[in-house]
Every structure is written in structure tokens, then in C-alpha cells.
Amino acid sequence: MKRLLCIWLPNWPIQSVRLREASILNTESAKERAEPQGSRVVDRSAVARDDRGALHDIPSPTLLWADDPRRGRIVAACCRDASMRGVRIGMPLVETTPLLRHSPSPAASQAAELRPAEIRRHDPFMDGEMLKQLAAHIQQAITPRVAIESLDAQPWAGFPRQQPESLLCDVTGVWHLFDGVQGLIDAIENTFADHYAVQLHTRMAIAPNMAAAWALAHFGDHDVEISDEPTAAIASFPIEALRIARDTAITLHRLGVERIDQLLRLPRSGLATRLGKPLVDRISQAIGEIDEPLVTDVTSDALTYAHELEYPTRDLPILLHRMEGLLHQAKAGLARRNLGAIRLLCHLDMAVPPSQHVEVGLFAPSADVAHLHSLIAGRFENLSLRHDVVRLTLSIALTGPLRTVQTSLLSDGAPDSQSMGGTAVSRFVDKLSGRLGRDAVLGVKVHDDPLPENAHQTFPMTGQPIKNRRVESPQGTSGGAIPTRSHPSASRYRSPSATDAMRRPLTILDPPQPLVSLVPQVSNQLPEAFRLRGREIRMVGYWEPERIETRWWSGPTIRRDYYRVETDTGTCWWVYRDITASDASEWFLHGQFT
Question: Which pLDDT tens digit goes with each residue over 384-400?
């Protein structure tokens, strides 16, 4: 029978911070032992040693915050002590100050006096790197099939922080290597204890399928759960154990469905019609009808390289020299795959948290060490290092096939910089993006949207495209017949056809300029005269309107009637009447043809 193991690390961002702090404190402990007696004074009130001799902090409330586009700084994660004081994920950071002053117990009050609350920025990149390290240790010691849990587009109900916190392992056929289940669990705990100075808080579960193992690990009564009957084991769990969307869970709660056994009694055909097919798929995965794929994280093939500095420093030439060595290692790894780097991530672990990371994007794949080193050097020059760097990590986040270049007949056979690093144009774009930032060097592409302001999209020309900062408007449809001219004798312009490029102006105004009608309107026809920025403009000809409106399911309705008009100055404008809000006519100039 197939066996899947789920290792859940509750509140992983906080545990990840503890692990990084412990590694730094152990480094300081090693330096202390190497120094002569009396040469350094250590504050024993702030740190203590555990049974293994490693330094650790006295527990104190820890908060991690992140930036929200609408709400500012909010709580991304908090420790148990902070949670007992009333801090919640998603709470504005300013509201946590009075809560942290309140101590739920005398012991917490004493700890708060020794160490105040630690408030720092959430670093999801380092959380992911630490989770990959855990997966690598499990691959080496337990089973080669290890994956980090995959997330949906929207957060799951009951889990507001959309971040992986679990490892999924296929342990089928490895029982005999550890003398049973208990030996397997002990081996996992010993593996973590051998690599980390602090004890990890884990919850583990073994089940015939991935969904049941995940549910048992997150909602089981014990830290270790084992079951061969997934349906019976998860029947009493809340519906949130199925990893469903928040809106779906709210709807089920309104219907009185709180547990999985209540949900299983309902006909699935009705659930698919009313709540969507994803809910039915989650049910089928949990009871074993659908096998959920295990996307194995092969860390051995990952293009990630690290260098521990013998002496922490913030000297830029030294850091760049060590980074050059990492680039040579990355070049060897890329050469084996016949690939080039498109996106680089440089992570700097500081002696005093938080760490810093630098992202470098390229226009074309490159394996030229000199070119990559110059881009990284340009970004490092803009860094403000307040503390010494103890560790450098280089990751190749995105790769692509190298451009094939015909070498010269008289060349010595060694690859030149052009074949390894792209053309002069790509290098020029790379240098501009490195100096100005990825968001400053943009490309333009056509977007299939009838709304003129959304007819194009911009994207960074280097690295992986990031989310456009431009707010997307709902997509629309264009209706109506081809515009026909109303006053043929009043204009020298011909009526455009459906395939004519002149149906749209080359110049689009952003935002559209409001037009004030100078003639009282008795109908929805185009007025004969407008005022634009204090100037009076008269219309001598126009074509019948073209209706552009959005789909009803795409959001707020946008409905416009566009006219091609000729003015008394001989120019051709593109104006529209906004008929979305009310019957009152509001006119705007949106573009110019000449």
C-alpha cells in the first residue's frame, strides 16, 4: 500500500527566524571560545545554553510584518506569546503596540523586561530557502521523493498566510530501513536535531494519500498520526482540512456544513453545480478516489551556491571577489545543462538580522561570468550594508537556452563573450536595468482588450515578468456596426473599414480630457461646439458612434460611445460620451489622429 508522509512545521516564518538566529548565536559562541579569557564580555541575561551547549534566546514576543498595498504594514506572522496577547495575522502593525505591553503571565512579564518584543520585516525568500534545506536533509537521510507543498491561487480557509509550511514525502518501501514507523519518525527527528541547534516544532502524519496525510498533520489530535483508512480518520475534521477556498468554506458554514462527514452526505453533482468543481476534486483526493501528484523538489539539481565567509565583512571588493567564485561554479552548472541565466538572486546573510537580497534580471540568457559579475557589482554598489556579511548565496532562479553563434574559422575554439553572454543590444538592456531597476526599462506588447487604455501592456525587459503596477480594467467587447459617416459633404476624410488602422488614433490621452459642451443638448447627439482647456472648438463633421462596453461578469460596467470627428482647425479627434453612470452626457477627448 502506498504511504505518504506530511511534515508540517507550524508557524514556519517564526521557526525560520529562530533557526537563523541560532546559527548566528552559535557562530558568536565559537568566536568566544577562540578568544582569550576575559577578552569579551557576554550578557548572560539575554542568552542561555541548552543541553547541547548551543546558545538560544530567552523567549520573547516576535512579530513579522509585511507591506500591504491598501493597509500599509500588517502582521504576517507572530509567535505564540504574541498570539496570547491578542496579536493576529493581518492586524495593522500599529495596533500591536498596546497588546505587546500586556503580559499574559508573570513569567512572560519577566521575559519582556529582559528582552522587549522583536518586530522585523518578513523575509519569505529566506523562509523558502530554509524549507528547501529541510527537504534536502530528508532526501539524503530518509527518502529521495520529497516535495514542498503546492499552493492554490487563493489562500485556503483557516490559513490566511499563503506560504508553504509542509514537506510531503513518499515513504513507500522504506519502512524496513528504520525498523517500522516509530523508527522512521525517530530518524526524521534525529536528522533535524543533527543539523539545527534549536528544536523544531513538527507535526507528522502518514496516510495512503497526500490529502489525508495533510489533513491529519494539520488537524489531528497528536503530533504523530498514522491511518490506513483516510475517510474514517478525517470524517470528524472541519471542512477547512480539505484545503478549500475561503469563500467556499463561508458558504458551507452558512448552509450548516461544519465537518467533513456532513459534506460527504451531500450529492457531489449538486456541490459541483453550486460550489464549483475544485471542492469536488478536494473531496475525491481526501478519500483516495483521485491521486494527487507529488511534485518532487530535486534539490541536488538546483542551481544554488553558497559561500561562508571566514571573517564577516562588509568590504565591497571582498564580497565581489567571493561572488565571482560563486559565478564560476554557476557557469559550470549551466554548462552541463547548456543553459544561460536569465534571473539571478543574491542573498546576503548579515551578522545582525535581517538579511538582504539582490535580484538581477537579464534580457537574454547568459553564461558569461564577466558580464554577470558586472551586473551584480552595479547592484552591490547601491547596497547600504549596516552590518557585516557572514554568508553569500547565489541562486539561478530562471534559465534559458543559450544563443547559438557561429565561431570564426581562425578562432582558437574558445567561446567568446558574444556566444556566452548575448548580443550588444541585450548587454545594453541588462546594464540599463541594472542601474535604473527592472521597472524602469520596459517593453510594450499588444493586449486583446477593446478598452483603449488597456490595449497595451508594459513588462520588464529583463528577468521574469513581474506583475504590472498598472491597474487592470475589466475586459470589454466592442459592438455596433462599422462607423458610417453622417456628414459626407462637410469633411474630406473617408469612412474607415473594419480592417483600417485609422479606426484607432495613434495618440491616446491618459487620462482622457473632459470636453464642455457650448450648445444646450436636447438629445444624445454630438454637440456642435466644445470648450477644451479654455479654447472653443467647433465640429464640422463626424461619423456615427461605435459602442464599446465591458462584459457584465468582469466587474463594474463601462459603456461608451466613440465618435471620429473633424474640427474647424482641420484636426481629427476621437471623442466619446460616457453613458455608464446616468443619462447625462459627459464628453471626453481620448485621442488624436493628426
Answer: 888 899 989 898 878 88
Tally of CA atoms within 13 A in the half-sphere of 122 that contains its CB: 25
Q: What CA–CA distance (Å, rounded) separates 289 from 285?
A: 6
Cβ pair 153, 84 in contact under 8 A: no
CA-based angle 119:123:126, to the nearest 5? Answer: 130
Q: What is the mean pLDDT of the chain?
A: 77
How many angstroms separate the CA atoms of 27 and 34, rounded? 11
Category of 503 on φ-ψ map: left (φ > 0), alpha (ψ -120 to 50) or beta: alpha
pLDDT in tens, 526-577: 787 888 887 888 888 887 788 888 766 555 678 888 888 888 888 888 888 8
Nearest alpha carbon to residue 215 among 125, 300, 143, 282: 282
Residue matched to cell numbers 482540512: 241
Q: Which residues contact 192 (CB under 8 A, 6 or more apart)?
A: 134, 137, 199, 200, 202
Residue 161 makes CB contacts below 8 A (sequence gap 6+) with: 13, 76, 77, 89, 155
Which DSSP category does 222 fall into? Answer: S
C-alpha cell at 563: 465618435
Is residue 17 within 8 A of residue 353, CB to CB? The reply is: yes
In 161-272, where do the E strands start and end?
Answer: 166-170, 203-207, 224-226
Task: Collapse the DSSP code of 277 into the 3-class scheme (helix H, G, I; strand E, B; otherwise coil) and give the result.
Answer: helix
Backbone phi and psi for residue 195, each to the nearest 5 degrees, phi listed first = -105, -15
What is the spatial distance between Cα 511 and Cα 491, in angstroms, rounded to a whole number? Answer: 28
Amino acid at 213: A
* C-beta atoms surrounding 489 within 10 Å: 6
**Distance between CA atoms of 230 and 238, rounded to whole angstroms?**
14
Which pTM value belongs to this model?
A: 0.52
- Could you report the per-residue pLDDT of 419-476, keeping only the tens digit for each? 444 567 777 887 777 777 767 788 887 777 777 777 777 777 776 533 333 334 334 4
Closest to 402 measured CA to CA, from 433, 429, 364: 364
Distances (CA, A) of 474 to 23, 446, 453: 49, 16, 11
H or E segment and range at residue 396: strand 389-401
Element (H, E) at 337: helix 316-337
Task: Tell me what pLDDT residue 241 has.
Answer: 92
Distance CA 70, CA 67 (A): 9
Over pLDDT 90: what percentage of the chain?
16
Asked if residues 470 and 545 have their Cβ atoms less than 8 Å apart, the reply is: no
Task: Compute and round to an integer the Cα radius of gyration of the chain.
Answer: 31
Residue 455: the pLDDT is 75
Residue 104 has pLDDT above 80, yes or no: no
The number of beta carbons lying within 10 Å of the beta carbon of residue 558 is: 18
Q: How would you classify the pairing of strands 476-479 and 546-550? A: antiparallel
Strands 442-446 vs 535-542: parallel, antiparallel or unpaired: unpaired
Write the Ramachandran bin of 516: left for phi over 0, alpha for psi from -120 to 50, otherwise beta. Answer: beta
Which residue type occupies 129? E
The DSSP bridge partners found for residue 446 are: 456
Q: What is the Cα–Cα distance from 522 to 544, expressed in whole angstroms?
A: 18
Sign, CA dihedral 570-576-582-586, equals negative
**d(Cα 511, Cα 359) in Å, to the nearest integer?**
33
